[in-house]
Specification:
Layout lengths: L1 E2 L6 H5 L1 H9 L4 E6 L3 E6 L2 H9 L4 E2 L16 H7 L9 H16 L5 H13 L8 E2 H6 L1 H11 L6 H12 L4 H28 L4 H10 L6 H14 L2 H15 L2 H9 L4 H12 L8 E3 L3 E3 L2 E3 L4 E3 L2 H5 L33 H18 L4 E2 L21 E3 L2 H16 L1
Parallel strand pairs: 1-2, 3-9
Antiparallel strand pairs: 2-3, 4-6, 5-11, 6-9, 7-8, 10-11
Helix pairs in contact: 4-10, 5-11, 6-8, 6-17, 9-10, 10-11, 10-12, 13-17, 15-17
Length: 418
């Protein structure tokens, strides 16, 4: 039986625990139709999710002929170049490329970047309302911070940041086939831009991760020019998009839960613990890429056939009551926290450390600078983009003083009464 659930609906994004609990009642793996993917099995438990992610020999990201899952024959060559990255590779190519970028990351010392990340967050928090009130926390803060950080990390020019924001907005708008065709233009521009930056680093050198990758390439790293482009694209896109929605989703939860916000503001050394729970509860990346089943296998009592496709539902693994007490509740003191938001196995997120630091700095800078920050609208007026697989708030309008909205609402009520 095929489960029917709209993974792009407002109801699903507004209350994922409710929808996931209902879905899990159908089994640890459920056959369904997923937008832009088609017929696929999805996991609904922690154990099933972990098994699929860890067994890279049985569940592969490539077809037997080596093609990337989801690519079509009619797609332009630059789309294939961008898609041909670590996230879509099985062994041994995955390890070959991962070792190259791991070496470049090691040289950059991510933990040492924390003071600079905190300074960027402080500056953005200071200017949150520079262009008027209310301010959209997504566009004015949550999107800019990760882009600023990854741009500096890569060594990309500050002046080019508006391009990255435009490209990020284009990727966020991907909801259906029509918007995919609109996205092709942005992909083409990004590929040409990144190829130019890589070539400049080869000729002129420079600072940043791009220059480090070029150096590893010179030292004998086995990577093709196209793989270099896709690598930098992955770092730029994945290094900003998902963290944007972690920050905005976490801020939203604090804005609508004053008690949790007060608890966190009393002692910001608790922020790391809180971010782990936001990673679990917000789950910005809700699904993995589709994988092919290479042999008949039983997963949690469900029989999968060779040639089937399966997607792990990270959000469902994070809401599994077998792993977490009261998983539907946001508990900033949760210990232990066994979330799978960064995945597991060979594809465990390369940027997990950076994302944690950015989210911690972002929340502390924001609520320290604006201790009375509040939503400019009722929570019922907050909406999510209809992009399958990622939970992203479309707009998050905020005001500097929560009392202003309460006073405005009271004035409006008095006017209506008279």
């Amino acid at each position: 039986m095929t489960a029917r659930l709209d993974f792009t609906s407002e109801a699903f994004f507004r209350d994922p625990p409710k929808a996931i609990a209902a879905l899990r009642m159908s089994g640890p793996l459920v056959a369904t139709r997923f937008p832009l993917v088609g017929d696929v099995w999805i996991t609904t438990t922690h154990d099933a999710t972990a098994q699929v992610l860890k067994d890279g020999a049985t569940f592969t990201l490539r077809k037997e002929d080596g093609d990337v899952a989801g690519l079509r024959w009619w797609m332009p060559s630059y789309v294939r170049t961008i898609a041909n990255n670590m996230l879509t590779m099985d062994e041994p190519d995955h390890t070959r490329l991962r070792s190259i970028v791991d070496e470049a990351f090691r040289r950059r010392a991510i933990v040492a970047m924390e003071p600079r990340i905190r300074a960027i967050a402080d500056g953005l928090a200071d200017g949150l309302f520079a262009e008027g009130r209310p301010a959209d926390l997504v566009q004015r803060y949550a999107r800019i911070l990760p882009l600023a950080v990854i741009s500096e990390l890569l060594g990309l020019p500050l002046a080019d940041r508006p391009k990255f924001i435009a490209w990020g907005n284009a990727m966020s708008s991907l909801t259906n086939v029509v918007s995919f065709f609109r996205l092709l233009w942005a992909f083409r521009k990004m590929r040409a831009y990144l190829a130019q930056q890589l070539q400049a680093a080869r000729v002129q050198g420079g600072e940043g991760l791009i220059a480090e990758l070029v150096q590893v390439e010179r030292e004998g790293g086995q990577i093709t020019p196209d793989e270099m482009v896709s690598m930098v694209f992955l770092l730029l896109a994945a290094g900003s998009e998902t963290t944007t929605h972690l920050i905005s989703g976490s801020a939203y939860e604090l804005l609508r839960n004053p008690g949790l916000r007060d608890w966190l503001e009393q002692d910001w050394s608790r922020a790391g613990l809180a971010v782990e729970e936001f990673l679990r509860f917000v789950s910005p990346v809700q699904f993995s890429k589709p994988r092919y089943v290479r042999r008949d296998i039983e997963v949690e009592g469900v029989c999968l056939k060779k040639g089937d496709r399966v997607m792990v539902m990270l959000a469902a693994a994070n809401m599994d009551p077998a792993m977490h007490d009261r998983p539907e509740s946001l508990d900033l003191e949760r210990k232990p926290n066994r979330h799978l938001s960064f995945g597991t196995g060979i594809h465990f997120c390369l940027g997990h450390q950076l994302a944690r630091i950015e989210a911690t700095c972002a929340l502390q800078a924001l609520f320290t600078r604006w201790p009375r920050l509040g939503l400019a609208v009722e929570t019922s007026q907050i909406h999510w983009r209809k992009r399958p697989g990622i939970r992203m708030i479309a707009k998050l309008p905020v005001i500097a003083d929560a009392g202003e909205r309460r006073q405005g609402s009271s004035d409006a009520e008095r006017r209506l009464a008279s």
